[in-house]
Design goal:
The protein is an alpha+beta fold and about 375 residues long. Helix content is about 30%, strand content about 30%. The chain contains 8 helices and 20 strands. The protein has an 8-stranded mixed beta sheet with strand order 6-7-5-15-16-17-14-18, sandwiched between helices. Strands 9-2-1-13-20-19 form a 6-stranded mixed beta sheet, covered by helices on one side. A 3-stranded antiparallel beta sheet has the order 3-8-4. Strand 1, helix 1 and strand 2 form a beta-alpha-beta unit. Helix 2 packs across helix 5. The longest helix is centred in the first third of the chain and has 25 residues. The chain starts with a strand and ends with a helix. The mean pLDDT is about 95.
Length: about 375
């Protein structure tokens, strides 16, 4: 059996471990110094913007399409296997269009998606107001509705993935830090043959690094200069007991990169800011940006002004520097170390496709 070690139990690493667990010829270990889903995964709203994306070809589109397709089979599969319920909003995404938006661009995208087998609708303001009564349509051109896109609770999903992987034989080690990767030269090739933890060492045939912001420190000792830097995000959880919906239609509403995400128990997420490190590399939450986010959301949906704030959170997303996101490839000069990291703001969306890409790398090498 091939011994595969997956380092990192966020959404990406947990999905990789679960998807690989379908192969009975693999001996898989999932390692994280923290509890699953408590890093960048916990700093995500779980919005799966695949069909509504303007990516229509190449790798960027293939990853999005593969993930959207897999999610609709993955969720019931996990719920059946684990007995856990995963909050999964299948009512789509409504994107507000403003005066400076190019309506023809969206009409063209709708035609492209139709040719690809997906629905994408351009709505007038009247139709938008009829379907989403909370939205203030003043100053809008209308909206784009994507019924094939989704929203999911990333923390619940990650817990289900880990439980599912464990039930299928994956060894899980949490609360232990990876100290180093032991490498050896074999002929003209270089390999990692051992992963050293604080209390033990584990042999490896393959090492998959789904380490997010922990990637750069771990691979620096291997001679790699790949940098994955943090980008801060802030969001608010509001209580809104009188949020109006029609015909049980409650999609994600987004506009100008502000997302309004309906949840259970009359709660709504507003998010999220995008805050880059300062000149000395620090990411400090900017309260003014969070206030601006809330104010813009209120402009879209005025009744949010009366919704009390239940809590606010901050989190960091891993963004590659000098490379496009995500990084799904072998580490330079190493034949059995694979990077699955740097997903930036698309980790939840692209996790299933990343796992399938890793599986392909393993089986074609």
């Amino acid at each position: 059996m091939s011994k595969i070690i997956v380092i990192g139990s966020g959404i990406v690493g947990s999905t990789i471990a679960y998807e690989l667990s379908h192969n009975p010829h693999l001996d898989i270990t999932l390692i994280d110094e923290k509890n699953p889903g408590t890093g960048a995964t916990g700093a995500a709203l779980g919005i799966l913007m695949g069909i509504i994306s303007h990516k229509t070809k190449g790798k960027a589109w293939r990853l999005r399409e593969a993930s959207i397709k897999r999610y609709d089979t993955l969720i019931p599969e996990l719920e059946t296997l684990t007995g856990l319920q995963i909050p999964y909003n299948k009512q789509g995404i409504v994107k507000l269009l403003f005066a400076d938006d190019d309506l023809s661009k969206w009409e063209k995208l709708a035609q492209v998606r139709s040719n690809q087998g997906y629905d994408l609708f351009v709505w007038s303001c009247d139709e938008l107001k009829n379907r989403c009564p909370e939205v203030n349509v003043d100053g809008l051109l209308g909206a784009v509705y994507s019924p094939c896109d989704r929203q999911i609770n990333p923390t619940f999903l990650t817990k289900a993935l880990v439980k599912g992987a464990s039930l299928k034989g994956v060894h899980c080690i949490f609360g232990e830090k990876v100290i180093s990767l032991t490498t050896v030269d074999e002929g003209n090739n270089r390999y990692c043959r051992e992963v050293k933890l604080e209390t033990r060492s584990i042999d490896a045939d393959w090492v998959i690094l789904a380490t997010g912001l922990g990637t750069s420190p771990l691979i620096e000792s291997l001679g790699s200069n790949i940098m994955v830097a943090p980008v801060l995000g802030q969001a608010l959880l509001l209580k809104h007991s009188s949020w109006q919906i029609k015909d049980n239609f409650s999609p994600v509403i987004t506009g100008n990169d502000i997302h309004i995400v309906p949840m259970a128990n009359d709660e709504l997420w507003l998010g999220a800011t995008v805050e880059f490190p300062d000149n000395v590399g620090e990411t400090i939450p900017n309260e003014e940006l969070l206030k601006n986010l809330q104010q813009k959301a209120i402009e879209f949906c005025p009744s949010l002004a009366d919704a009390p704030i239940m809590l606010s959170w901050t989190g960091k997303r891993p963004r590659p520097e000098g490379k496009s996101a995500p990084i799904i490839e072998k580490l330079d000069n190493y034949d059995n170390i694979i990077l699955a990291t740097g997903h930036y703001r698309n980790g939840i969306l692209l996790a299933p496709a990343t796992a399938l890409s890793i599986l392909e790398l393993l089986t074609t090498t």
